[in-house]
Backbone:
C-alpha cells in the first residue's frame, strides 16, 4: 500500500480519494448464462428449422436454421459477456442496455433451440405475456403505493384472491362485469382495512399481519367457495366476463397492435392506472405527501400532515388497485372462481415491487418480465423440449429469485416502510 | 407577534417535565431558553408547537388564547421551528421540502414546482445566501440543511421562530453566520426563542435569558451576566467550568496509527490517510463537526469497523484485523458515543452492565455460572467510587439519568487494567455535575500514564481536556495542533482549512 495524503481541492479544503472498485457480478452472471446455453446446445444438439410466426399482420414467417442460428447467437452473447468484463476491469459499471440486449438475445437463442422443427407464435407469446402480467401489474402498483406510504403490503395475495372472489360473485349476481370490478375493489379494500388497522393503529408487525391476512383470505374464500359457490354454481359462480375491445387503427400496428390493443377493458384500465400512478406519485400533492409519510413521518407530522390518516387511506387505495388485479382472474381469464386460484402471484407481485425499486414504471416492467417468463414456460411445454416440464414450471420463480437477489441487492426502499409511526 | 406561555405544565406519568412555566417573548427580541439536557426545554417547545398537549396552562399569541391540536395549527398561527434533528426528507429536493404541507397546486392537484423554486430563492435572497432549489437535501452539508429548515419556517410566514439547539451540528464559523441570520430576523420584527445549553452563545446573541432547571423557571438573567453566574443558575450551585490539570508527563510507546483508511461495506471511504500517535500520559482530542469520520475512526480502533486498511499499533502490537475480544484483552477501554445503543443494556441491572465485557473473568463467573455475590459487591464499590446516583446494584440501567448511565459506562471501562482509553462524546447529554466528574476521571486516567483519545464535537470539551488536538474533516485529519490553539483556528480547521495560519 502506498503512503496516502489527502489531496487539496481548489477551495483549499481537503478532498478524499475515491475508492474505485471493480464490480464483477454482472459479467459473471452473463458469462455463466452464455456457458450454460453453449453446454445445452453442445450436449443436446437439435437440428432442423425454427419458425417464428408474426401472425395477423401479414408478415411472413421467419424460418431459421436451428443449429447455425443458435451458435451464432451464442457467439454474440459471448462477445457481450466479454465486453462487460472489459467494462468491469476498467472500473466501469456495465451499461444497462448491454444487460437488456443480452437478456433478449439469450431468450431468443433458447427459443430457437427449443423450437427446432416447431413453431413459435411470437404475437400470441407476447399477448399471453401481457395477459398473465395484468394481476401482477395491479398487485405491484398496490405494493408500490403501500410501501411508499410506509406500510409493507404483504397482503397483495389476499387482496388479489378476495378481489377475484367478490368479482365472480357480484358479476354472477348482477350479470354486469363492471359491478363485479367494483366488487373486486371493495374486496381488496376490505383486506387493506384490516392490514391498516392492525399495522397503523395497533402497531402489529406489518409483515406478520400481511402473512396472516393471506392465510385468512385463503381460508375464508375456500370455505365460502365450498359452502356457497359450489352448491349454487349457476347463480353465484357464473360471472359475466369482459369482452375484448379492439381499438381501431392502433390494433393494426404490426406485432404490438394485436398484443396491446386487442385486449379487455381491464387491460386498458391497467395502462391508465400505471400512467396515472407514475405521474401522480412524483408530480402531485397526493404523491408528495404519500412519499413524505413513507420516508420521514416525523417531518411530515411537523408540517401538519396527519401521518396515520394519510397512511390509512393510501393503504386502502393500494388494496383497491390490487383488487382490480384480482378481478382479472374471474372476469377475464377463467369463467369462474376456483379455490386458491391466485396461486402465489401476489408474492411475485411483491418481488416485482422490490425489483422495480418501488417505482411504478419499473415495477410494471418487472411484472411484465415475470408474466413473460410464465408464458414462455407454457410455450415450451407445448413445444415439447427435451427439458422436463417440471423444470419448466420453475422458470418464473427462478427468474424472480435471480431478479430480486442478483440485481436488487443494494437498492434502498422508502426509509420508514414497515415502521409504525408513534407520536412521542 | 408576542408569544406568551402561562403556567405550562406537562407530565409524563409521574415525571413532571414542565412545572408551571411562564415565558413571554416580544416581537423583535431574541429570548434564550437556557438549561441543562433534560431540564425540559424541548418538552416546552414541543408543547408550543402542538406536538404535545399541555396538561395545564395556556399559550397566547398577541393576547389571544390558542388551542393547538397539532403542528399544523401552530404553523397556521405563525409559529415556526428549526428542529435540533432536522425535519427534512433527505430524498426530496429543497423546493419539495419547503412546500411540503402547504403545496401550491395547479389543475388537478399537480404541484406547482416553479412557484416553490421561486419561493425558496426569494427567501434565501433576503439573507444573502444562495441555495439550489432542486438540490437533494441529503446531498447538502449540514449547515446548508439547517438553512433549508429556516427557509421552510419562513416560507410559511412564521412570526415566532424557535431554534432548538441549532448550533450542535455547526462549526464555529457557521454558528456565527447563524447568529447573524437570527439578528437580522429579530431586526425585521420576528420573535425568536433560542434554546441552548451553551453559555457563550447565549451571551453573544440573546436579548433576554430565562433559565430552566428540572422543569421549572429558576430565574432570568441579563446577557451581561458572566459564564459562572449563568452556569450556577443553570445547575443550582457553583460549578467549576475549567478542568484543572498539570502539564503532561509523556511516556514511551502508546498508540500509533499509520495510513489508516476505513471503508463502509459498500466501499465508500469514510476515513482516509489518518496518521497520529498518542503517548502514555497525554490526551489527544479528536475535534470536528459530527459526521466527519470520527465515529468510524473510533470503530476502527476498537475493532468493530467492517473494512480497515493500514495499521493501528498499541505498544507495538498490531490491532487491525484482531477480534474485538483480543483488542479488549490488549487493554483498550472504550466509551461509545451512544451509551443507550452501544454502551449499556437498558433492561439489565447496573451490576450486570458493569461486567458485560468480563463475563468470562474468573472473578465473576465459575464454570459458566455467574457469581452473583461478587458481582454485587463489585457494583457497590463502583457505585460508591463513581458517585452513581442509584438505589443499588439491582437498579435497571435504563431507568438512570443520562449522567448516571454514562458514569456506569465509565466505571466499567476504568475498572479494568487499561493500556488505552478511547472515549467518544463522553459527556453528551450529561448534566454539568457529571461532566465535571467525568472530566476529572479522564484527566486522572491520563496522569496514571495511560494514553487517552477523546472524541468530541463540543469545542469546550476539546479545549478543556486536550494536550493535543487532531481536527477531522471529511474523514481526514486536517492537522494536529497543541491544546492551547485558539478557537478561531480550530473553527477554520473544522471547516476544512488545511493550513489555518494562511487562511486566517
Residues:
Amino acid at each position: 500500500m502506498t503512503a496516502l495524503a489527502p489531496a487539496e481541492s481548489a477551495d483549499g479544503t481537503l478532498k478524499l480519494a475515491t475508492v474505485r472498485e471493480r464490480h464483477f457480478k454482472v459479467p459473471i452472471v452473463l458469462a455463466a448464462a452464455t456457458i450454460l446455453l453453449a453446454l445445452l446446445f453442445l450436449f443436446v444438439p437439435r437440428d432442423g428449422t425454427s419458425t417464428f410466426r408474426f401472425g395477423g399482420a401479414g408478415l411472413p414467417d421467419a424460418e431459421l436454421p436451428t443449429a447455425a442460428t443458435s451458435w451464432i447467437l451464442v457467439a454474440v452473447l459471448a462477445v457481450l459477456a466479454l465486453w462487460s468484463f472489459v467494462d468491469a476491469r476498467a472500473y466501469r459499471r456495465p451499461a444497462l442496455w448491454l444487460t437488456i440486449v443480452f437478456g433478449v438475445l439469450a431468450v431468443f437463442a433458447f427459443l430457437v433451440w427449443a423450437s427446432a422443427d416447431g413453431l413459435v407464435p411470437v404475437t400470441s407469446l407476447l399477448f399471453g405475456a401481457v395477459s398473465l402480467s395484468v394481476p401482477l401489474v395491479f398487485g405491484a402498483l398496490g405494493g408500490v403505493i403501500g410501501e411508499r406510504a410506509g406500510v409493507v403490503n404483504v397482503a397483495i395475495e389476499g387482496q388479489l384472491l378476495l378481489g377475484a372472489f367478490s368479482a365472480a360473485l357480484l358479476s354472477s349476481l348482477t350479470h354486469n362485469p363492471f359491478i363485479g370490478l367494483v366488487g373486486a375493489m371493495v374486496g381488496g379494500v376490505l383486506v387493506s382495512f384490516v392490514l391498516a388497522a392492525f399495522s397503523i393503529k395497533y402497531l402489529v408487525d406489518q409483515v406478520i399481519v400481511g402473512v396472516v391476512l393471506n392465510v385468512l383470505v385463503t381460508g375464508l374464500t375456500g370455505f365460502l367457495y365450498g359452502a356457497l359457490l359450489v352448491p349454487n354454481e349457476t347463480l353465484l359462480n357464473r360471472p359475466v366476463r369482459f369482452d375484448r375491445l379492439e381499438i381501431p387503427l392502433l390494433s393494426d400496428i404490426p406485432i404490438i397492435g394485436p398484443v396491446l390493443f386487442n385486449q379487455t377493458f381491464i387491460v386498458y384500465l391497467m395502462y391508465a392506472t400505471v400512467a396515472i400512478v407514475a405521474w401522480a406519485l412524483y408530480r402531485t400533492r397526493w404523491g408528495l405527501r404519500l412519499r413524505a409519510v413513507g420516508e420521514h413521518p416525523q417531518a411530515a407530522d411537523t408540517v401538519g400532515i396527519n401521518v396515520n390518516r394519510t397512511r390509512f387511506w393510501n393503504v386502502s387505495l393500494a388494496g383497491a388497485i390490487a383488487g382490480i388485479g384480482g378481478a382479472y382472474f374471474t372476469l377475464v381469464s377463467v369463467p369462474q372462481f376456483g379455490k386458491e386460484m391466485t396461486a402465489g402471484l401476489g408474492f411475485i407481485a411483491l418481488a416485482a415491487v422490490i425489483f422495480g425499486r418501488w417505482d411504478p414504471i419499473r415495477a410494471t416492467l418487472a411484472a411484465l418480465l415475470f408474466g413473460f417468463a410464465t408464458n414462455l414456460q407454457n410455450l415450451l411445454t407445448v413445444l415439447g423440449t427435451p427439458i422436463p416440464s417440471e423444470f419448466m414450471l420453475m422458470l418464473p420463480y427462478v427468474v424472480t429469485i435471480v431478479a430480486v437477489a442478483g440485481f436488487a441487492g443494494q437498492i434502498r426502499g422508502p426509509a420508514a416502510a414497515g415502521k409504525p409511526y408513534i407520536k412521542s | 407577534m408576542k408569544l406568551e406561555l402561562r403556567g405550562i405544565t406537562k407530565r409524563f406519568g409521574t415525571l413532571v417535565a414542565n412545572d408551571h412555566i411562564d415565558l413571554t417573548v416580544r416581537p423583535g427580541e431574541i429570548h434564550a431558553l437556557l438549561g441543562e439536557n433534560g431540564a425540559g426545554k424541548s418538552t416546552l417547545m414541543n408543547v408550543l408547537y402542538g406536538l404535545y398537549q399541555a396538561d395545564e396552562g395556556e399559550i397566547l399569541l398577541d393576547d389571544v388564547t390558542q388551542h393547538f391540536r397539532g403542528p399544523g395549527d401552530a404553523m397556521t398561527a405563525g409559529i415556526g421551528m428549526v428542529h435540533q434533528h432536522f425535519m427534512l426528507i433527505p430524498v426530496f429536493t429543497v423546493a419539495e421540502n419547503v412546500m411540503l404541507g402547504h403545496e401550491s397546486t395547479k389543475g388537478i392537484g399537480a404541484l406547482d414546482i416553479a412557484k416553490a423554486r421561486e419561493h425558496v430563492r426569494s427567501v434565501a435572497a433576503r439573507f444573502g445566501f444562495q441555495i439550489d432549489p432542486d438540490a437533494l437535501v441529503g446531498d447538502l452539508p449540514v449547515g446548508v440543511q439547517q438553512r433549508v429548515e429556516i427557509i421552510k419556517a419562513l416560507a410559511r410566514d412564521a412570526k415566532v421562530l424557535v431554534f432548538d439547539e441549532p448550533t450542535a451540528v455547526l462549526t464555529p464559523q457557521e454558528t456565527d453566520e447563524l447568529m447573524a441570520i437570527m439578528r437580522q430576523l429579530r431586526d425585521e420584527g420576528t420573535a425568536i426563542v433560542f434554546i441552548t445549553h451553551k453559555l457563550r452563545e447565549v451571551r453573544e446573541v440573546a436579548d433576554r435569558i430565562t433559565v430552566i432547571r428540572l422543569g421549572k423557571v429558576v430565574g432570568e438573567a441579563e446577557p451581561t451576566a458572566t459564564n459562572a453566574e449563568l452556569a450556577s443558575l443553570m445547575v443550582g450551585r457553583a460549578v467549576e467550568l475549567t478542568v484543572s490539570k498539570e502539564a503532561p508527563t509523556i511516556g514511551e510507546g502508546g498508540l500509533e496509527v499509520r495510513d489508516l483508511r476505513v471503508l463502509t461495506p459498500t466501499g465508500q471511504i469514510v476515513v482516509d490517510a489518518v496518521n497520529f500517535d498518542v503517548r502514555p500520559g497525554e490526551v489527544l482530542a479528536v475535534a470536528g463537526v459530527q459526521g466527519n469520520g470520527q465515529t468510524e475512526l473510533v470503530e476502527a480502533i476498537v475493532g468493530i469497523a467492517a473494512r480497515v486498511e493500514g495499521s493501528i499499533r498499541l505498544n507495538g502490537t498490531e490491532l487491525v484485523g484482531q477480534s474485538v475480544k483480543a483488542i479488549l484483552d490488549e487493554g483498550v477501554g472504550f466509551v461509545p458515543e451512544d451509551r443507550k445503543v452501544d454502551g449499556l443494556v437498558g433492561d439489565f441491572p447496573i451490576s450486570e452492565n458493569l461486567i458485560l465485557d468480563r463475563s468470562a473473568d474468573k472473578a465473576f463467573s465459575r464454570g459458566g455460572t455467574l457469581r452473583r455475590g461478587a458481582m454485587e459487591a463489585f457494583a457497590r464499590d463502583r457505585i460508591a467510587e463513581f458517585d452513581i446516583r442509584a438505589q443499588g446494584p439491582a437498579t435497571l440501567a435504563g431507568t438512570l439519568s443520562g449522567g448516571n448511565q454514562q458514569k456506569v459506562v465509565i466505571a466499567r471501562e476504568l475498572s479494568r487494567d487499561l493500556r488505552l482509553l478511547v472515549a467518544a462524546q463522553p459527556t453528551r447529554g450529561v448534566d454539568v455535575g457529571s461532566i465535571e466528574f467525568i472530566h476529572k476521571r479522564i484527566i486522572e486516567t491520563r496522569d496514571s500514564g495511560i494514553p487517552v483519545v477523546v472524541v468530541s464535537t463540543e469545542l469546550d470539551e476539546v479545549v478543556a481536556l486536550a494536550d493535543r488536538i487532531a481536527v477531522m474533516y471529511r474523514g481526514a485529519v486536517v492537522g494536529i495542533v497543541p491544546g492551547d490553539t485558539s478557537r478561531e483556528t480550530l473553527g477554520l480547521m473544522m471547516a476544512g482549512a488545511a493550513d489555518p495560519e494562511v487562511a486566517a
Chain B touches chain A through 51 residues (CB under 8 Å). The longest helix of chain B spans residues 172-187.
